[in-house]
Amino acid sequence: MLYFINDYSEGATPEILDKLRESNLTKQAGYGSDEFCILAKEKIKEAIKTDAEIFFVSGGTQANKIVIGSILKNYEGVIAADTGHISVHEAGAIENTGHKVFGLRSKDGKLAADDIKKFCRDFYVDVNHEHMVYPGMVYISQPTEYGTLYSKKEIEEIKSVCNEYNIPLFIDGARLAYAIGSSECDIGLEDIAKLCDVFYIGGTKCGALIGEAIVFTNKELSKHFFTNMKLFGAVLAKGRLLGIQFDTLFSNDLYKKLGKKGVDTAIKIKKALIEKGYELYIDSPTNQQFIVVDDATRERLSKDIGFGFMETLQNGKHVIRFCTSWATENEDVERLIAVL
Amino acid sequence: MLYFINDYSEGATPEILDKLRESNLTKQAGYGSDEFCILAKEKIKEAIKTDAEIFFVSGGTQANKIVIGSILKNYEGVIAADTGHISVHEAGAIENTGHKVFGLRSKDGKLAADDIKKFCRDFYVDVNHEHMVYPGMVYISQPTEYGTLYSKKEIEEIKSVCNEYNIPLFIDGARLAYAIGSSECDIGLEDIAKLCDVFYIGGTKCGALIGEAIVFTNKELSKHFFTNMKLFGAVLAKGRLLGIQFDTLFSNDLYKKLGKKGVDTAIKIKKALIEKGYELYIDSPTNQQFIVVDDATRERLSKDIGFGFMETLQNGKHVIRFCTSWATENEDVERLIAVL
Amino acid sequence: MLYFINDYSEGATPEILDKLRESNLTKQAGYGSDEFCILAKEKIKEAIKTDAEIFFVSGGTQANKIVIGSILKNYEGVIAADTGHISVHEAGAIENTGHKVFGLRSKDGKLAADDIKKFCRDFYVDVNHEHMVYPGMVYISQPTEYGTLYSKKEIEEIKSVCNEYNIPLFIDGARLAYAIGSSECDIGLEDIAKLCDVFYIGGTKCGALIGEAIVFTNKELSKHFFTNMKLFGAVLAKGRLLGIQFDTLFSNDLYKKLGKKGVDTAIKIKKALIEKGYELYIDSPTNQQFIVVDDATRERLSKDIGFGFMETLQNGKHVIRFCTSWATENEDVERLIAVL
Amino acid sequence: MLYFINDYSEGATPEILDKLRESNLTKQAGYGSDEFCILAKEKIKEAIKTDAEIFFVSGGTQANKIVIGSILKNYEGVIAADTGHISVHEAGAIENTGHKVFGLRSKDGKLAADDIKKFCRDFYVDVNHEHMVYPGMVYISQPTEYGTLYSKKEIEEIKSVCNEYNIPLFIDGARLAYAIGSSECDIGLEDIAKLCDVFYIGGTKCGALIGEAIVFTNKELSKHFFTNMKLFGAVLAKGRLLGIQFDTLFSNDLYKKLGKKGVDTAIKIKKALIEKGYELYIDSPTNQQFIVVDDATRERLSKDIGFGFMETLQNGKHVIRFCTSWATENEDVERLIAVL
């Protein structure tokens, strides 16, 4: 069975396992004060070419929950795409911190600056807005949950709306490697860092065993963030596990290389899909490729291929996903194309 | 510098690193549905000789937060020792879930069944108790934060009070290996499982990189626990990381062996301390040894030894801790004894 | 200036003030244990012709917050119309308890049973539903925020969906007097009580100074509700203030009479609006009447009449509201009609 | 039966009922924007002789919950006497907002500045304090739950510690009338206002039907407090009910007069108690008088007198409370004394 179900079905890039073994008995301070965390932070700061406060946590929902839950005030909510991860697939993790998620209509998984602007403007002109949840943050994902990318211009426009309403911009980079690894991406780590207040660099789906690096370029927002992490249950006694991984990922440009590998295999699949006449559900330049198939095709493909099932459309057809990653073998891609 | 500061300053027992490498490219389902998690659960159920619902999370505070936060009702609080981890060192993680921690006076880190009983009885006889937080759970640590152990009889008595007031008993086993690895421990995994409603088996401090196994022997309490884990940000996409570790720890009796190694080295240190006339702060049969020293001694020892500083007593003397673990080398113990 | 802005711009029906004065120095037990609360509960149970657990609180948002916050489990959310009060105008009071509000598309302020059914069915067929918020309750308002009414059949259908998915139905009756006071309402208090699990009878907008009576006909859901009220800050030391009011409102059929008066004046206005060629925004059979006006009309009317502004439509016209209540004078209605 | 059980067993001072009747049909804006609220705020500002942001809510637990819940940050807790209302009798209302209550040992219901200082100093010298709840506010009650009073000097000292640690001081004035009505009170409303950041003026126990006036003299802390009130369910549609009452209480020095009446009757009782040889439990200069009695006395007194039962001491004797209020009749006091 060919396996294109998701981007977290293997362990870690071998360099990480090597480093874990090599460092295994080195005695280190706990809770993220170890040498590896310190080193990893330095390397990330080099990569983003700006100063920042950096924290490592275990997973994406956790990163979203703590960042949003520690920044928003009681009376504020977070603006997100209605298809955003926090809107749908985090089991109410944000609401559990006491905050509303405003799920704005999105297109191809993306929020438009104009829609955010309209939302905020409408809020403040409403005479009853003191009886309503205040927009307190904007959350976007790069790449989005549908594999699409925001352009630099689009993020600049969103940031400009944020500035107008004095609310921070938070970018979920669970699959950030597959954004910066895409040839269609015109916004690199440096720009991301400059344009938002806080973002996270996904490790789990991009070569690590677990781990996300939360980067506050707006350092004001990171006050007492360690204690926030602790009270949300996110501090690891052996923080070294995260430090070692990000130290490795940000050495020798590995993070970007892994991302590029995931995207390259996906684009190969995309080209084959187009050539063979499959209907793309969305035009994705990253590691997730979505197509629309009928019952028969879905069944046929499922005999040899593991893929993700997303939803059944009103016309009865199905949206399915082929997902590659840093670990995808070219050989498997060839076999997939042969089956298609 | 000799390093006896804590029990989480190294990586993992080598068997775990081997298994990680060996399984690295095996494709597995996400979120804890992988083969390793399934296998690990089976092995734990064998070890505790009872049926149970088992879940793996990353750390101890997280385990405590989710278990307590998902079981208690709005109007309930949790009874704990005033020295318990949830009372002091979790930055309000429990209160953040909306619940009060009743910090009852403890002795040697332990709660007495009689004190719990008095607390509950006083609560229910108070005519105003509907205006107060209800006792909704009892939380104890085995071994305690001071290295001491509850006997089987003591836990039976506590459970009996719990039954009388119809509240569950939760045992924090962050260092459980060092309890069952101690020759003075008369209550093994089987008994623990029988006597409480839910407990967790600590991995992080007992040989794993990260990870705790939450075991519900009262399965009624575990309904929808996976979704609770998700909304608290505790579900790992690569759940295999936890499954692989617990699978390893519960193969070939490794968990108990690692615990025994940690205790044996500690007891060697304890004997030396007594012989050399040091004042024990507490009589601990497990991997943490506490002594009382004056300024001069503290300073002298700190030249060669890394140890934990706990508190300064009213008489000006200090409580310090030597902590061993599964990774402690006998050679280092000899050198420590020489310095002492 | 004629005042048709809302239904809470006066004090209380005079019978309540009389009763407050008459009882003023009678000494009573606190926190809702007074004779008046007991009496009021008996009278409400007579009116709904069924046994129930009844609690009095100060306002509607408070009632919604405590009922929802005390019934839902961590991983559950509440289904509501996207125009429902809890979806829009409670400043995140529900999310503040940790729960998501699912704002389903509504028509004329109403939820359709079929839409609720589709939502629940889609949830359970989703393979990822354990990563999502569970539907845990249905919330509807009778009358709705747009003055419309659910028929008995519609509520039966909704309840049937609730039963299918084993979730309770909660009815917000902030303006319930204006439902049962309407000639177009085919579902009285008795039926409401039978068809839902919990509802509240609005006092604040229906003749009282403040106060809502929360009625649990599904008594299982009301366990420890007093302590839930306390911890949400809703218990009044002088609970008598609420007991006296509901005792009065449920004597001599006063509640229904006050409702009828509010509706009758509104219907008089509605007829005049239609006759004079105004465009109704919605066909409301209760005390709120909504019309669509252009700029000029809005300005002209605002010279003599206080009315509510709801929103500006895409065509530039405005939705405004004339609201009557138990306190509306026929004379003012005549004058309003003259101005129209 | 003579009734000295508590200070909330009657309705309101008659001036309030008069004003309610007189204003009953006056049409007013909702949610606290009415003329009476505006007027009441002006009068309170005159009384405290300082500028402030003022908000009215329904009850004491509600006031405490919203003030504390809206000021504290995630990682902060509130320091209170272990006998403080928020520590014991609010059913976890504070913890429900996600915050820990640090119940410091108290004497006669009072916190000492030195103990607060020691607590804060110990916190910051602890190397692990980032793993602990930060002290974020000090809460005291004037008068205390045991009827005792802080002197001006004592509150100055407490405020000085607050300033040192940069945390606000919040004073619960549920019975404030009985502090300023006592001849032994050397700190009036003006001083209170100057010395703390926020306090509330109790209405419910001091002559009103319901209501507390929250006064922020540190206006920075009151930002968006209205929306905080809303999301905690505390905004009344008919805010006039609170405005009218505080307008009345702060006209003609009525608030202080009512307080004085409550204290004068209590002191009369206290003198009689001393003369007749009863053992005072505490030396209270306000409207609550506590004595220690044996079984026989308790039973004898309970035949004719309603009093509060507080607790049974270790020696088997009981602490009981005689409580007076603005409504206590001199005649009843004479009869009480006769029975004593």
UniProtKB/TrEMBL annotation, chains A, B, C, D:
Task: Give an example GO biological process.
Answer: amino acid metabolic process
What residues does the Aromatic amino acid beta-eliminating lyase/threonine aldolase domain cover? 11-236
Q: Which GO terms describe its molecular function?
A: lyase activity; transaminase activity
Give the cofactors, semicolon-separated: pyridoxal 5'-phosphate
Q: Does the keyword Membrane apply?
A: no
Report any Pfam family annotated for this entry.
Beta_elim_lyase
Q: Which InterPro entries match?
A: ArAA_b-elim_lyase/Thr_aldolase, PyrdxlP-dep_Trfase, PyrdxlP-dep_Trfase_major, PyrdxlP-dep_Trfase_small
Entry annotated with the keyword Protein biosynthesis: no
Query: Keyword annotations for this protein?
Result: Aminotransferase, Pyridoxal phosphate, Transferase
Note the PANTHER family from the entry.
Answer: L-THREONINE ALDOLASE-RELATED, LOW SPECIFICITY L-THREONINE ALDOLASE
Q: Which family does it belong to?
A: Belongs to the threonine aldolase family.
Q: What is the name of this protein?
A: Aminotransferase class V-fold PLP-dependent enzyme
Provide the species name. Lachnoanaerobaculum gingivalis
Q: What is the lineage of its organism?
A: Bacteria, Bacillati, Bacillota, Clostridia, Lachnospirales
